[in-house]
Amino acid sequence: MRTGRPRDEKVRLAILTAAQELVLEKGYAAVTTADVAERAGAGKQTIYRWWPGKGALVLDAFSEWVSQAPRMSRRKPSLSSTLVEFCRGASEAAPVLRALMAEAQFDEDLHRRLIAQLVRPRGDELRACLADRRPADRELVVNVLSGLVWQRLMLNEPLDARFVRFALRVVQRI
Amino acid sequence: MRTGRPRDEKVRLAILTAAQELVLEKGYAAVTTADVAERAGAGKQTIYRWWPGKGALVLDAFSEWVSQAPRMSRRKPSLSSTLVEFCRGASEAAPVLRALMAEAQFDEDLHRRLIAQLVRPRGDELRACLADRRPADRELVVNVLSGLVWQRLMLNEPLDARFVRFALRVVQRI
DNA sequence: GCCTTTACGAGACTTCGGGTCTCGGAAACA
DNA sequence: TGTTTCCGAGACCCGAAGTCTCGTAAAGGC
Q: Which domains does chain B have, with CATH numbers?
């Protein structure tokens, strides 16, 4: 049994909320951990006690945000609707995603977390839409699609309806 | 006519060489402009006089390196040989490419430079290998290939022979 | 041969954000 | 009551980016 004062859930949420708000307001690079602590009414040390750094904190803040999104669990969503939803979310959060992927290039631990919490889950969603394909083809399509999306993000090109049509056309040809 | 002492070409090259060596030795993140200046026998100010920052400097250092690569100008290289060469170079310089693309996410000017000096030229090389395809297909293939490569880079997965076969299989299906 | 202009090396300096340390106090459990 | 862990607050350290200044050097113009 763990002894001592337990972690305060209110504080945890306040920090995640503050991080999310500040990043949306000012952009990832302009937000400091001190800013987050101040808005959350928390101490800086409380942040560093539970997160290894700014990257992991922001990742957590937006992981929760993504998982709060209305995941209408119809039994098998179509590839196109999934891709549309996928791109809508990625487009809204584009600046954050770009920053996190960028920061992850300099931080191995954050890189692992990012893949586990954001990259892999999205790939799995896509994979689930391709149950009717041959397994080898499935991986191929998933790779191509996520490759296209991440490239668009890093190159700062729009993930709009035109792109979705483009991507679907590619997949159809494979 | 420009008056005053002209820019010293020796110094320019010494700085680029020092930057290149140091980045290869210690990795992008561990190199500071002060390090580069010291090894080049130059002053820090001389770096900032000609480059806006570390990113642009390293980009220039490796742009020259790439363009020095033996570009055997046979008339029309095949797609597969180009892709192999492409991946070999990208694989060797992978840590630098990752770091530059990452830094570019926080620096709009560097982002433009990176695309103009590295991303676009490589895309053009690929495009030149696809002269026999319909124009619409060409863009599609170029996008898919460069998307796959950049994704592999940012996800830190190997750009090996197996990947090349994979990529070629994808293209063949389109 | 001077004068102006710009480049150069060197080093001091400022700024700022990440991250650590410390302290007084609070919440749990034994 | 004592031990343990958490909390807010704030001081603190560190390192890298970028600026400023100074004495000097190399060009062209006069």
A: 9-58 (1.10.10.60), 69-173 (1.10.357.10)
